Amino acid sequence: MSKDIRFHTIYPNIQDSKMTEKQIHSQVCRYLDIQYPKVIYTSDSSGVRVSIGMAKALKAIRCKGYKIPDLIIMHPNRLYHGLIIEIKKDLSQILTKSGTFKKNKHIQEQHETLKELERLGYAAIFGCGFDHCKSVIDEYFNKQNQIK
């Protein structure tokens, strides 16, 4: 993964997962806690079910111009300020069979956010399934061998 390559469009062979996106997200966070316990990260709460009052309060303090990705890892490596992952169940959620990004407005907005974050110096990627997210995280931290 070099700085020249668009980090958010690199995908290995990704298999469909039987886990839900929420379960994958939870497993990725658990993996971070175990494998990289000194790393500071946070998760966006957009998908969490809350009361109407709490939903209004959260909306009032949420970024309006961009779709905030699911997982934000606030630890730089030699190339990037941090790693940001928009977690998806599988690749079919974001790409058409021909390999182009789906015309879905939400996916397009997420893609634009990832591109902007990349422009700002972050590694920003769609993570498709647990294995892919794990590989992305390990590759990111492999660029800086003192993290574990």
Architecture overview:
With 148 residues, the chain is an alpha+beta fold. It has a single domain, classed as 3-Layer(aba) Sandwich (Trna Endonuclease, Chain: A, domain 1). It contains 4 helices and 4 strands. It has helices spanning 21-35, 52-60, 105-119, 130-142, and strands at 41-43, 71-73, 83-88, 123-128. Strands 1-2-3-4 form a 4-stranded mixed beta sheet, sandwiched between helices. The radius of gyration is 15 Å and the shape is globular. Mean pLDDT is 84; it is low at 1-16.
Give a short synopsis of this structure.
The chain has about 150 residues and is an alpha+beta fold. The protein has one domain (about 20-140): Trna Endonuclease, Chain: A, domain 1, CATH 3.40.1350.10. It has four helices and four strands; from the N terminus they run αβαββαβα.
Q: How is the biggest beta sheet arranged?
A: 4 strands, mixed
Mean of pLDDT: 84
What distance lies between the first and last C-alpha atoms, to the nearest angstrom?
20 Å
In total, the number of domains comes to 1
Order of helices and strands: HEHEEHEH
Structural class by SSE content? alpha+beta
Share of helix, binned: 25-40%
Low-confidence stretches: 1-16
Say what the CATH topology is: Trna Endonuclease, Chain: A, domain 1
What fraction of the residues are assigned to beta strands by DSSP?
Answer: 5-15%
Strand order of the largest sheet: 1-2-3-4
